[in-house]
Every structure is written in C-alpha cells, then in structure tokens.
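hey team, just a heads up i'm posting the complex here instead of the shared drive bc the drive is being weird again. everything in one block, sequence lines first with there labels, then the predicted structure for the whole assembly after. its two chains so it's a bit long, scroll down
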Amino acid sequence: MTAFWKTIAVARKELRQIRRDRRTLLILLFVPAFFLLVYGYALNFDIRHVRLALQDNDHSAASRELVSAFVNSGYFDLVADAPSPTAIDRLIDRGDVRAVLVIPARFGSDVVAGRSTAVQFLVNGDNANTAATVVGYATGLISTVSTRYEVLARLTSPAGPVLSVEPRVWYNPELRSTLFLVPGLIAYIAMLTAVVSTALSIVREKEAGTMEQVRMSPIGAVPYVLGKTAPYFVVSLVSSMSIVVAAILLFDMPMRGSWVVLVGVVSLFLVGALAFGLLISSIADSQQVAFQVALLTSFLPTLMLSGFIFPISSMPAFLQVVTYVVPARYFLVALRGVVLKGVGPAVFWQDLVALAVFAVVILALASVRVRRQWA
Amino acid sequence: MNAIEVQHLTRRFGAFTAVNDVSFQVKAGEIFGFLGSNGAGKSTTIRMLCGLLRPTSGTAVVGGIDVMADPEGVKRRIGYMSQRFSLYETLTVDQNIAFFGGIYGLSRDGLAARRAFVLEMAGLRGRERVLTRALSGGWRQRLALGCAILHEPSIVFLDEPTGGVDPLSRRQFWRLIEDLAGSGVAVLVTTHYLDEAEHCHRIAIIQAGRLAAHGTVDELKATFASRPILEVRATDAVQAMRALDATAGVEKTSIFGTSVHAVLSSHETSAASIAGRLEAQGIRVISCGVVPPSLEDVFLDVAERSAA
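-- predicted structure starts here --
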C-alpha cells in the first residue's frame, strides 16, 4: 500500500514537471499533428503538375491532340516551348522543366495513315523515383493515344468509336498514399514521445543528482519507475490518438475498426516503447547520449525498417530478417488492419503476440538493469 | 548504542581500494566531521552507510541495522543531503516538500506538520509557491536539508552541504546542524572547509581510503603539542619562508595568508632566536610567536605523514 502511494507521489511530481516544462509539453502534444501535416502532404509518392516543354515539329491536328492528352491528364503542365535541341538542354539544365516531349515532323500524316512512328520523351533523371513515375505517366498517355489511332486506322472511318482508355499509373493516387502513411506516422510519433521522453526524463534526474537523492529514500525501483513512466504513457496515448483523429479530419481517413481495439493495440505498442526508453536510460548517463541511442535504435528502424515508407518485401534478404525485431513492423500491420480494413485481433493476433513478446523481453531487460543500478 | 558503528569497512572497485579498513563510531547527538581531499573515499563511505553501495568487507551498522542485511530499513532511518541540493528546480518549494514527503511515506497529517516545521526552519514561509530554481543558494540549501529530514530521521548524512553558499548562509546552516544534533540526531558531515570542521564534536581525516587520524578537535591539535608552531609575520612572507626552511630546528613551513607557519622540531628553539636569525639575514620581522595549531596545520601534517 505504501508502495502504491509512493508511486502516486512520483507520478504527481512528474506530471507537475511536465506541465511546468511548457516547451516539452507542446512538443509532445503538437509536434505529432505538425508531423502529420508535413509528412501527410510531403511524403506523397504521387507526382502532379510536372513541368513539361514541347518541341512540336509537326504542328498537325494529331500532334495537338497528343499534347492536349498530356495537359488534360492533370499530371503535366505545359510551361515552355523548346524550338531547338539547345533550348531543350537549357530548359532541363536550369530546372525549368522536368520533361520534354518531342514530336517529329510527319507525325500527323504517319499516324493517320496507320504507319508506325515514335515520339521522343526526355526526362530529367536526377531524381530516379520521380523520373520513373513521370515516364510511367507519359507511357500510359502515349499508349492511350496510340491505341486510339490503331483502332481508327483499322476501321478507316473518321466517325468510328473512340476508345477511351484511362492511364493506369503504377503508384497510388494521392489519397491512398496518405492513408498508407498515417499508421506509420503513429508508430513513429509514439516512438518519439514514449522512448525519447521516458529516457530523457530519467537521464535528466541522473544528471541533476535528484536520482541519487531519491535512491537515498526508502522507495523501491519499481514504484519509482512506474511513477515516472505512467505519465508518459498517458501523454503518448493522447498524442497517438490525436494523430488518428487529425488524420480522420484532415485526410478523410476511414476508421473502419473498433476504437477499443485501436486503443488496445496502441497501448500494447506503447508499453514496449516505454520499456525501451527505460532500457536506454539505464545505459546512458547523459541526455545527449540517450537521445542519440534512441535515435539509432528506435527512430531510424521505425522509419526505415517497419514498412512505414519502404515495403519490407522489397528489402534485401538480410534487412528483411532485421525487421523481425522492429516492433513497429507488427504494430503497423495491426494498425492498418484496425483502421483501414476494419478487421479485429482474430486476423492480426500474431502481430499482437510479437508486440507482447517485445514488451515483455525489453521490460525484463530494463528491470534487471535498473534494479542492479538502484541498490 | 552508537548511531553509526563502522568496523573494518572496505570497498574495492576492481584493483582500486576506495575505502580501506575504516572503523569509527558516531553517537546520537554528535556532529561527526569527515575530512579529506577529493577522491579520498568520503563519498564512497557515505554511500555504503546509506545502503547504496555494498561493502566489499567489514560491517556498518546504522541506526541499529546492518547495512548489508537491510538497506531499505537503513534508508527509512536516515536523511541524506548532498552538495548539489538535489531538489527539483522546476517545482515549487511546496511541491518539493510534497514529493519528498510522498516518497518517505508520510501521512497527510504528518506531512502538514513537517511542512510547517521545514518552512519555518528554512525561513521559507511566504515563499511556498516560488520555483526552487528562483531561490538563492542559502535558501535552497536549507530547503534541501528540510526535505532530507521530513521523516524525522535519527541519523543525517550531509555530503559537503555548504559548497557554493555565501558565508552568512553557511553560518546559519551550521546553527541548524547544531540544533539538529541538540535534539539527539547523529550528524555525519563531510566538508572541505576546515573552519567548518571546528563545529564538529569529533573529526575523522580520511586519506587515500584510510582513516589517517580521528578524535576531537582538541585531541587532534594535542598531537601537535609536542611540536610548537611559530607564526612569523614579515614584510616579505615568501622570502621569510625560504629563510626559515634553511634554518636549523625548523621542521617545515607553510604559508597562511600573509604569515608563515613554521613547525619547530622541539621547544628548545625559541621564537626570539628564530626572529634574530631572520633579522640577521636582512628580513624585517613584524611579529614572531608561538601559536596554537589550527585544524589546517593538523590536516596538512596528517596529509604529509600519510603520503610519506
């Protein structure tokens, strides 16, 4: 019973310190929303409004039709005219345009006659991902137009049926990629608040000497650690859930599953993350070291190796093995399951078990280390 | 029964022996001074007595409890305060008191009574809601002491409690310590300040992990009585010291402010003859006479003897 009241005393003190430290509190509560906005809009794998230059050596109805197919797709903006090869070089070198469409002379007569012809499409490849996407768009558009001419040529009837083929782009449209990212963001931000704030708050007490003072009092390691981490659990849970709410409001993210299950999944992940912060604090003696260790062992893996941004299936085999110890990997599966698919624990129970195993193992390691240091 | 009973206490860190076969006792109501240079083993000893560090060998019984057997029980009976005044700077005076009351398991009524006592003692009445970091060093120091004795311990450890505090606050603080001892609390205090050590009932000088000397201030000074100390004031203290070093019958010298202390090897050498010899070398002597040894003389002597 006394241990309980001692835990409460520590937790109350910690909450008061968090409240006093406005800057940290602000960071904990509002940076997540800020991140959501930045990442939600910036981490967008779709490309729109690609600046396009045109060299039309044909000036026929067919060439104009091809150009309008590009412009009307919404993916390209015609911003410049490139009358000569040197003009093309200059436009791309200066970054005025990302892509150039070169239509050869006699393009119109060739397509109308059904003869095979080619247009040239130049893309600035300095950003390989963007270039690949742009090439994809262009290929789609050109093949659409080409199909129509083939059909026309075959029918040899100007009033024949016009086939409309929508371009199939390999990447998700804008909305979907944001939805895909939000669960990853929650994992990322939960890691930030839970791991870092726990580790820093304990290491700060080491640095200030208050830890030594507290150790001189008759309070065990367990009430102390519980009292210190409980407030951060609450703060992390609040900020994680606020991201979900913000994503629903700002990005029309659906919430197809149960809120209870969602809170349960997030809590399970947070317990592991807090334990990890605790483990770091038992190793690091300065806030700087704690932060760097947290960055290397929790941030980067969560960002890189969880499937947040890069699909695990396309990683090298060695890295794929590494992802098995990244808890965010399992968290993301469960989270996407609840939020986007509306499925329950029956579907992702294996991931929950993995999260629980992570939490228990880390908690055990941390308590062994903390106990050894305590007395 | 002694409040603190230490027998052959030893602590090794690998090949390094931080505390080497230390034995002493502290009675209830006694102020026991622990002197020694940095790294001499003072803090390591205190950490063992507080149950934070296990001794390699030897025994320490604090408040009737063996530190090895029940460190938690020891912690309930002791108060600890360090030079860092380890308070939470971003909390108010009241919140610090509430926190330490909480982790010592004080009841609501108990805390209210002790809070009033601590505020009174530290002179912080009316400043309950001030942030601790806004307090001056002296106030912070008294608040730290107050937080360390909220649970009315019978033994208090003060680890260099007066570092970085102005002289007036130091005086006030020592008055508090004397009050504490007067109420029957055993106080073990470490300090660098030898003038402060004069407040202590008994003193132990620890040197390289060993107890080099130990007794009352008068006892320690008496070990010097066999060798008189001459205080020489001259217009040029450094020149006087050099001359004294070369004089027969002078064992050693040290500068004390503007004067020179010379330890004589026996009472046979008179002050007048030393002064005459200095004057003969053209040094103007302002005064020259035998003085009682200060604690600093004792400390330097002990340090040199244990270094030899």
